[in-house]
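Deliverable D4.2, example record:
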Amino acid sequence: MKFAPFKIENFFRQHEFSAPYGISQSDTEPLTLDELLAYASVERRQQFETLWLGYTETQGHPELREAIADLHRGIGADDVLEVAPEEGIFLPMSSMLEAGDHVVAMQPSFQSLWEIARATGCELSFWQQRRRDEGWHFDVDELEGLIRPDTKMLIINFPHNPTGYLPSRADFERVVELARRQNLILFSDEIYRFTEHDEALRLPSACELYERAIALGGLSKCFGLPGLRVGWLITRDGDLLHELQEMKSYTTICGSAPSEILALVALENWRALTARSSEIVRGNISYCRDFFGRYNGLFWLSYPQCGTITLAELKADMPVAEFAEAAVAEQGVMVLPADVMLFEGNYFRLGLGRTTLPHALEPFEQFINDQFC
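Output generated by the structure prediction step:
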């Protein structure tokens, strides 16, 4: 397989650790090791400090898989495979798809959610997001028209990256039923699940509703722990799980022993960690309403009900790629333009999860005033 350049990762490799400021990060403020260990019980702390640094179980630490299963209804530890988050996309796409298969994916979305299928030689159809006055939307009627008798896999991502869109429970169940009707593999990227600003909005996991669903989750976004590199795949289909395990033997083989114990600490305190993240996001949304409200003629954006990111439109004649290049060059502010996400339009991604966002918006405002005021 020959993969296209991963544009968003190339962008972050260039700017994420060199630009002094950023307004486009997708995670919530990461915890320090001391902050995470402060949540640990005496027993977990001792387990971490005396940990044997040998190989770990291929499927994942049994207690960790049990803790992941406990986040879901009707799921057992044996349905869970521990993975690195990006590995969780690579395994099913590379093991279950072949050249000529028809795949339906969302657009825009994280590039690997469809690029691996394209590189494999699959035929792709895209379920496109639509902009409405109140924000972004994906029309399930449009999705139904894309599914063909020979479709093999449907790839979805809710809460959505990069808009934070979340369908209604009825619409989500209808999406699952479309997959069930044709016995499709339903790959559901749920990495932003648990970022709902109101817990009542939380959708069930696709793996709870449909046996041939494969759900991807992890600690990178709303848990504030991207550096642990801990994620998971869940499916109740034993044959699919076996394929995933076989492919994992060619990638990471097993997880990191220290990360597994730290992940256990996180999941044993998941409500506190997700509440922390939601508080940060809500505070930043309030701040951004005031900030961007001062520039209504220059920007359009809608604020999500879940997730840590949204899309903002630059309503000036300046192309957003040029705008982003100038922002980092003149004020050291990293701004992720839409073309890096392979999305058309004069948009950039706004990250709402970092405590540093208000501070980063100060030089960003200076840049705006220099350019347009």
